[in-house]
Amino acid sequence: MHDLAHPRERHVSNRLGWLRAAVLGANDGVLSTASLIIGVASAAGSHQSILVAGAAGLVAGAMSMAAGEYVSVSSQADSEAADLARERGELTVDQSGEVQELAAIYVGRGVDRPLALQVAEQLMARDALAAHAREELGISDLTTARPVQAAMFSAASFAIGAALPLGLAMVTSTAWVSPAIAVASLAFLALLGAAGARLGGAPVLKAAVRVMFWGALAMVVTAGIGLVFGTKV
Q1: Per-residue DSSP letters for the chain?
Q2: How many domains does one find in the chain?
């Protein structure tokens, strides 16, 4: 007898949190470090000053990403905790009213009211707070804010991205460091854009072209600043 079960469906929504952080962090690492190195090289900086600037950019950028992500996600976590505390109080004070509120959500989504009431009652009998958190507040295990995890992930992805142009600068002569890093970084950015789009189920070519355009613009601007001011680090 053949197995008539449906094939397992693949969704990308559960990847969106870490995918966003990984792509954003690595993209920033490549772009900011490459632009910094190109700017210093355009200002006639020595090979040593180029490497120092790149290394400083890697460390400072990774710490900045970690701090920014931690503060941002911590604020989200605080808001979620406050909402859950408020909802817990409402469930204690007016259980029947909360059943009606949850049922109304399902009715608004197209469920007949008698069935909506039955579903609401059964879900709340099992875990009332979880049901309201998910349906009313949009909070679930997939979306719950995790500040430390977000900070570490963003810092690591930034450092990995920044290490690519910095590593190339270490093995490239000063005369060729700007064009070499520009070409390689644009390639890295295109790969990141394509990989992020692929994992997220979005158009690959559009994402790659978009990130390459903004990357090229950033590197041209920083190279121009270095040429105009000619400041040695």
Answers
A1: ----PPPPP--SGGGHHHHHHHHHHHHHHHHHHHHHHHHHHHTT--HHHHHHHHHHHHHHHHHHHHHHHHHHHHHHHHHHHHHHHHHHHHHHH-HHHHHHHHHHHHHHTT--HHHHHHHHHHHHHHHHHHHHIIIII---TTT---HHHHHHHHHHHHHHHHHHHHHHHHTS-GGGHHHHHHHHHHHHHHHHHHHHHHHHTS-HHHHHHHHHHHHHHHHHHHHHHHHHH----
A2: 1
